[in-house]
Amino acid sequence: MKTLTMLLIAMVGLFALTGTPATYAQTEEKVYNEVDKSPEFPGGFSAMYAFMGKTIRYPEEASRKRIQGKVVTAFVVGEDGTIRDIVIEKSAGYGMDEEAVRVIKAMPKWIPGERQGQKVAVYYKMPINFALN
Predict the structure, then answer these.
(1) pTM for the predicted model, two decimal places
(2) CATH number where 28 lies
(3) Which member of 5, 47, 76, 104 lies 3.0 to 4.6 Å from 85 by CB, making a disulfide possible if both were Cys?
C-alpha cells in the first residue's frame, strides 16, 4: 500500500468584522467578532496542531486523485467552550470539506473568549490546508 503523508497547516485566526455582536438564528446568545481575549484550544496552538495531525484523515477520493486544497471553516465557540454552527466558507471538495467538519466536531471544548471580563460566544474562522507529500 502506498504511503501518503499529509502536510496539514491550520492557520487559525479570529477575524474582526464590525466589532458589534452578531445574532445567530439557532440561539439567542450574542456572538461576537471582536473580543478582549480570543477563544483558545486547550493547550494552545501546538496542542491543536497535534490533535489535528492525529485526527485528520486525508479523504480517499482526494488522495486517489492527488488533489490538494484549502477548506475555510467558520464556527462559534460558545460561552461554555463548545463548538457549534460549523459552516464551510470556502470549499475544496473531494471529501475535504466533510473531513474538516468531522475534525472540528471531534475537538474538545475550547477555553471561551472573553469580553469585558465575561465569557462570551465568539465567531471563529479556521482555514485548513490539505496537502500531499
Answers:
(1) 0.80
(2) 3.30.2420.10
(3) 76
Q: Which helix (H) or strand (E) holds 128?
A: strand 118-132
Range of the domain at 34: 6-132
Residue 31 lies in a domain: yes
CA distance 37 to 49: 20
- Tens digits of residue pLDDT in 38-62: 999 999 999 999 999 999 999 999 9
- For residue 73, CA distances in Å to 64, 65, 96, 119 come to 24, 23, 11, 22
d(CA 91, CA 62): 13
d(CA 16, CA 84): 19
C-alpha cell at 73: 471553516
